[in-house]
Amino acid sequence: MIRLIATISAVLTGSSVLYFLVFHQRLSSRIEHTSQQGALSKSSKPVTINSIPQSVFTDQYFALHDRASKSVLRESLPCSIPTELLFTKLARRNMTIFTHFPQALMIRLMSKSLEEKRSFKASHIASLDFHEGDLVCGVYRVVARSNNKVEFEIKLKGMEFVNGRLALSFKEEGNAVVFCTETVMWRRVDEKQTMPLEKPVLRWMHETAAWWLIDSGVKYLTELET
User: Fold this and answer.
1) Which domain of life is it from (predicted)?
2) pLDDT of 25 higher than 80
3) Among the listed residues 212, 210, 200, the one whose alpha carbon sits nearest the alpha carbon of residue 66
4) Cα torsion angle, 180, 131, 91, 71, sign
């Protein structure tokens, strides 16, 4: 019986891994995405997050940078809702969905203050216009806001050596709108500890989550009722 249970468990685990590998591959084909690591560049693979300190764009820092975007025809989106408001709805929706992800559940366990705990509530996120200072999911605080972009500072408890940014944005290209999610995480090169996204499994989880959120988020916008 023990051997049978072990065999069934191994089959189920293998099936789950295979499912997520196929899921990841399908997501990859539905969006545009880039990824790089090392010194941040302002030319070959530019970072469009404006709140990153200039000192980080040097060889004194090791960084991980990824970007995913999805384009949709403007006519496929509700014509009666301004694009700026659609973008805010997308940010609210995606951050609310993220609260149910394993990464967010781990962050929630480490959240102690009332502000941090409140930042996970769906009612709180649904009320946000993402002004500077707003906190979401315990570790994402808005540090820059414009009509087409929100930039969050990422502060991880117990990992003060890690700094990061998460940006959600959109841009209009002809008759299409491109929605984008971009993440940068960095540390000094002489820092011996590794960042979470340097671990292959955690980076894969982050990548899959970011891709799915932007892909399903755009689908959510196209299905909004006006």
Assistant:
1) Eukaryota
2) no
3) 210
4) negative
pTM of the model: 0.86
Rounded to the nearest 10°, the torsion over CA 204, 209, 211, 215 is: 160
Q: Which residues, including other chains, have CB under 8 Å from residue 125's CB and lie 6 or more apart?
A: 92, 95, 96, 99, 119, 136
Contacts of 188 (CB under 8 A, 6+ apart): 60, 61, 62, 161
The pair phi, psi for residue 92, each rounded to 5°, is -60, -45
> Over the stretch 76-127, which tens digit does the pLDDT of each residue have?
999 999 999 999 999 999 999 999 998 888 889 888 899 999 999 999 999 9
Helix (H) or strand (E) holding 14: helix 2-30
Contact 95, 125 (CB under 8 A): yes
Tokens of 165: 């940014």
Q: At 63, is the secondary structure helix, strand, or coil? A: strand
Backbone phi and psi for residue 104, each to the nearest 5 degrees, phi listed first: -70, -35
Collapse the DSSP code of 205 into the 3-class scheme (helix H, G, I; strand E, B; otherwise coil) and give the result: helix
